[in-house]
Structures are given as structure tokens and as C-alpha cells.
Amino acid sequence: MSPLGPGEQPVTARTAPLVDAGAEWAGLRVVVAGVGASGFAAADALAQRGARVLVVDARDGAEECEKVRVLDVMDVRALLGDDAAAALGGDLPRVDGAAPDLVVTSPGWRPTAPLLAAATAAGVPVWGDVELAWRLQPPPGSPGRAPWLAITGTNGKTTTTRMLAAMLSAAGLRTAAVGNVGTPVLHAVVDPQPYDVLAVELSSYQLHWSSSVAAQSAAVLNLAPDHLDWHGGMEAYAAAKGRVYEGVERACVYNVADPVTERLVRDADVVEGARAVGVTLGVPSVGMLGVVEDVLADRAFVAERSGAAAELGTLEDLLAASGGTGPAPHVVEDALAAAALARSHGVPPAAVRDALRGYRPDAHRIALVAEADGVRWVDDSKATNAHAASASLTAFDPVVWVAGGLAKGASFDELVARHAHRLRGVVLVGLDREPLRSALRRHAPEVPVVEVERSQDAGVAQPVAPPTTALTGRAVMDRAVALAGDLARPGDVVLLAPACASMDQFTDYGARGDAFAAAVLARTGGADGDGGR
User: Fold this and answer.
1) Closest by CA position to 128, among listed 29, 17, 211, 243
2) Is 344 helix (H, G, I), strand (E, B) or coil?
3) I want to staple 398 with a disulfide (CB 3.0 to 4.6 A). Which of 15, 363, 372, 424 is the partner?
4) Share of the chain above pLDDT 70, in %
């Protein structure tokens, strides 16, 4: 049997009634795939409701073993490492001597993973942790059931989710940013102190494994090729993202500049009366949020939409949100999307404004590290794909671009062609340079390109494991910063926006950004910017 599409799961007599926390969860036989943050939360929540749970994970390190010891107290069985080999190879494990009623998967597990494929072939439903969280909520109409405001997209999800949570908090609501942002949504759903509303970041993986989630309002920020190997192509990736709109009650928020997001709204099956609300960097039409001169304007959630707008803030209010670098266009789009979701929930304009003024970005997101001798040094190490790097480059001109890393089969022709005019020079790092190098050769032949020599133990690329130590990673960035400094002129921005993953020379994008910042501060004598370091 081929893998099912996004949101498609078999319905069985045992799982069909499991629609809320009041259902009969006791005795349910469940295999939980993975014991990471979401898998542990799922096993914990199910065990507390009397389900019979078996956890399976190929890892058997200290962290996994400690989690299993905690779960053992709740009578949860576990197969780790070599003990899990049969199950991970496709031999669907039995729970209490019988076939499982349900498999709950951690988000990153591919649909083609043998365990999940075996469940599908056997007609056993496979849910993600988000689907489980949705079904473990109190019954509809109960005081403890918090509506979800959901956010997805290729880039900007975490920024938008945190902005939205700040707006809801500024309105006096008990809320949390949950989901792909880091805190499992299950934690919020089972919290004994109920939330008023949740800001939920959803990845394409999580949406693929969700079949009944129906947010109060939802947004798709943008769509660009990403995780295509996991989903099997762009069409399936877009379909997974589009699931966030299914069953929406109030507002489907889309990006006017990205027509695919609007198409996903049109294709969605929503509750009668739900509205399509566009966000734009231009002057908003009726039913949209946008920018009028320097004002963030709402023409969707006001009484007289045809002739009036609510002022939600100004571009100046977003300076801190842009890491001290100026109101970057993609940050403005994120703020407008967050505001649209907040306004759909009844948040007043003043709370939106106050939240934007107080918002500070997470580390390595377009953060100003230093400014010295007329040159600004900006860390956007989080820009791990071409779409994110393009958004970052759009904010600056001229730019000395520090780029490269693990390309993951991506093409950079469109990215380089779009931004060649703003490039003062390019410094290439990483082991997988040829895709970027060749794109620069084709589309920016006049732009100077210099390359950092490969690290000492990087003779053979190992894309699934860091081949260097942290010291070597810092040495790579020391050299990159030196080369970028030689290219930069007063008025330029040296921008780390790699467009690639980091695991070839760094442990993660955070370590890459930290190495860049340390090298910059060493070069500039510690002339800190105001990017929140």
C-alpha cells in the first residue's frame, strides 16, 4: 500500500470515537514512534489516560534512556537501539500481545519509514503529536478548550508565532507559543491551568500527520521548495501546508505576494462565514492588512471596511523586531500576518502595537552584531534555504554576502539572479559549494567571489554528521569575516545568510551564527550592535 496523502488516515471503530479528552482512551494499544520532545509528551499523555503504550526509537543514548526510566513509572514499555530493530524494520510490534490500535509518530518520521508503512498496510491509523493533542482537548464548549490560531509557511513561522503570542498576551489573554516553535502543543492542551487561546506553529511534517485539526484562524505565510525529499514533491508539500486552512472558523490569512497561498485558501473546506484575509506590503484593499505610507493598516477587522482602517502601529515600531537593522520587508509581512490572526480573535489595535514595539527576535534571525567603520555586520544564520536568504538579502543594499554550507540538492539560480545587483562581493564557506559557485558564475559574473579554504578534517563531506570540531568551525568563520571585511566598504552590510544548512562544518545554525558573531566582535573590538546579544 502506498503512503497516504496529507491528512488521510484510516478510521477504525476503536479510534473513531476518540475526538476529545472525555472519550474512552483507557486500554487503547498505542505504539509511539520516537522518544524526543513530542514522542515523550505523547507517551506521557496517553499513559495518564490509561492507554497501553510502547515507545520505539533507534536511539539509545543517555537522554533517551532517562526518558524511558521516567515513562517506566507509568508502565510504558520501550524498545530502544538494537531492541527496536525489528519494529523499525517494518515488523509492526504488538502491544500487550495484540496488534496496536494506533501509531503516534514524531513529526520528522517519513511516511515511507518501515514502521509507519507497516501500520498503513495493516490499516492502523497513524497520527502525529498535533493530531493527538487536538483529540485530547476538553469537549467542545468546555471552559478549558482553547481555540487555536495556527501558522505555517516555508519561512517566518517562529517569528510570526512569537509575535502573535505577544499580541495575545498584551490583550490580557493567557496564551503560549506552541507546536513546532519548540514547546509541544500537548503540554498546553493537558495543562491543568487552561489557556484562553494558543498560538500554534505547524510544520509541513506535523500537518501531514493531522486529519481533524480545525483552527479558529490560520495563516500560510509563504511557500517555496523545501523538504521535497520528505514529501515527494512540491505538490505534496503545498498540500500539507494547505491542510492548516481545513475547518477554519474565522479567517484564512494569506500572502498577497504569494499567489499559491491564496489558492490554498480557495481550495480549503472551511466553516461557512470564514473569511479570506490578505496581507500585503502595499496599500491594502478592503478585507486586507497592509502598509499605508509608514502605518500598518487593518481594513479587514473594522466596522466600515470600505472607508476606514485601524492603525496597528508603524514601521518604526518594527525596528527592534528586525534586530536593529531596519524594518526588513519579511519582518513586516510576518507582523501583518500575526496581526491579522490576533485581530480575528478580537485583539484591539493598541495591544498589537504594544506587542510589536516590545518584540525582540530570537538569536540568529537578522540580528545586528556590530557596526564599525561604516560597515554593519548582520547574523541571519537561520536563513538555511534559498527562500529565507532571499528575504534577508532584500533588506539590504549593498551587501557582502557570506553564504554556503550543506546545499541539500537546492538550486540557487533564481536567488542569485534576483539579488546580483545588490552584491558587493560573496564569501563562500561550507563543503558543498559548487551549486552556489556555479549560480554566481552564471548570474553574477562581475561580482567578486572569494572562498574560505576547507577545514583541516573536511577532505570528505559527511552530510549527516559534523566533520569538524567547534574550534575548526570558529576558524572557518574567522577567515570568512576577514575576507568579508576586505571586500566591504563604508555603507555596506556584511550579511551571514547562508541559504544552506550548517551541519557540514557546525553542529547547527546557532553554532554557525555564534562563530560569526564572535569573529565579528573580535575584528571590531567588541563594538556591539543592538541585535539582542
Assistant:
1) 211
2) helix
3) 424
4) 94
